[in-house]
Amino acid sequence: MISGGFYTLFYKELLRFTKVGWQTLAAPIVTALLYLLVFAHVFEGRLQVFEGVSYTAFLVPGLMMMSIIQNAFANSSSSLIQSKVTGNIVFVLLAPLSSFEFFFAFVLAAVVRGMAVGAGVYFAVILFVSLPTHNPLFVVTFAMFGSAVLGALGLIAGVWADKFDHLGAFQNFVIVPLSFLSGVFYSIHSLPTFWQQLSRFNPFFYMIDGFRYGFFGASDASPMTSLAIVILFFLTLSGLSLLMLKRGYKLRN
Amino acid sequence: MSAAVTIADVHKRFPGVHALKGISFAIQRGEFFGLLGPNGAGKSTLINIIAGLTRCDSGRVSVLTHDVVQDYRQARRCLGVVPQELVFDPFFTVHEVLRIQSGYFGLRRENASWIKELMDNLDLSDKANTNMRALSGGMKRRVLIAQALAHKPEVVVLDEPTAGVDVALRKSLWAFIRRLHEEGHTIVLTTHYLEEAELLCDRIAILNHGNVVALDTKQALLQRGIGKTVNVWITADEPVPALSAELQAVLRAQDGTRLEFRLDNKLNSIGDLLEGLRTAGLVITDLHTEEPDLEDVFLDLTRGREE
Fold first, then answer.
1. ipTM score assigned to the predicted complex
2. Strand ranges (DSSP E) for B153-210?
3. Which of A12, A86, A253 sits opposite B100 (nearest CB)?
4. Domain ends where: B204, B222, B240?
5. B169 with B22, same domain?
6. pTM (predicted TM-score)
7. Within chain A, which residues score under 70 in pLDDT?
């Protein structure tokens, strides 16, 4: 059952990141555009990953998805760690909210921020790059599940972390490497066999590959397999998040 | 009539500490209840368990018959908690904070007039659109109280609400808390200021090392056998002679010509004391008596159990 308190928590999480929109929305869009500018300048005309697709066009969905997942993670994780460190998490914990409502509000706000950043990158880029859309449903579905997965992972990291340093370590040693090594800048088919096989254990690879399929109709893995893996990953992290919240892990003790 | 808060055999252990050792008592509806104890006695742990912020290892706590774990939604709706720490959300203004807090309890526009009333009563109206970061400590404390009351809870728990607050604000907070009590709220107050508890509370529990060492009305606690303090001034012409064993037992301090005695209600009277001093050959030049206060009771109950 969803209570009225859920909508307020969701609204508060949206209000929180929109109040610092330059940092939470504008900055990641500019960062993605800078990546695009540099990589496109260096590799355009020298690399072709999918037939008939320029390297710059190939790069755009990867950068979009990377921005989506990094910002979805940042939203739930930073909100939680700030609330924990400053102590104002107590106001949410005193409210009659269920574990599911707590989880859902944080993840949904992370999805909204991730999708907003992704849309921002898209609309900024299509002014300069010709980008086809093979299947918009795949684009939206992978963007939604990708941000939901990272929203849930951000919640887990935010609950687990005791200080900003812990969260920084999680972000720099888990999120950033997994997103950079997931095929944002290349197709895994261009990698040696060992690294190709290793990439298939990276769940971020399936998010980016399936998302890219939505634009080009071509991908390294089967899009349905990617979707199944992403959904499974989401369900696993959701289960873990809910278990932590239900037990009050690091929150109610 | 059901109790406002029922605490039944609550145990809580932290690594190396048995913080609560089977606490049981009930706070009646409409009471102004004081929860006292030295640092580390277990007061905040107990408050956190009532509020659902900490889970007890065993035992049961309910607020207006609603179990704080099984029926947490109803229990939390009945309860408002003013936390001890001066915590705030730096992203929002005073009005936003109160609107959000009210919304957590499913209350929206229909609660707008109550939020306005709260801000008026706590002198926050001028700061409604001020960011929380820009408020003084006293103002932040008022916002914490307003947040606890945003959903009109029947039971209000104030965890050291006047800690670090100046005298003027403390008095205005006392007046506001008294008004809440008169309006029918059950108030649970923890404080380090014993005069505050003596002034406000009807009934008091004293915790020490995770146990309830006293639970009674304020009047009963004050009459627990701790007698008057008697200060006697004697002539300085001659050295103080040896006192009898009975007088030595109640002598608390000796400072020049002043002798301080703490009488035991059941065993001593002022008459006995004066007679004993005369027998010892002392000439009394002045005498002053003080009734015991809550601080004397508190120290008496907690001092002997430090080990």
1. 0.90
2. 155-159, 186-190, 203-208
3. A12
4. B222
5. yes
6. 0.86
7. none
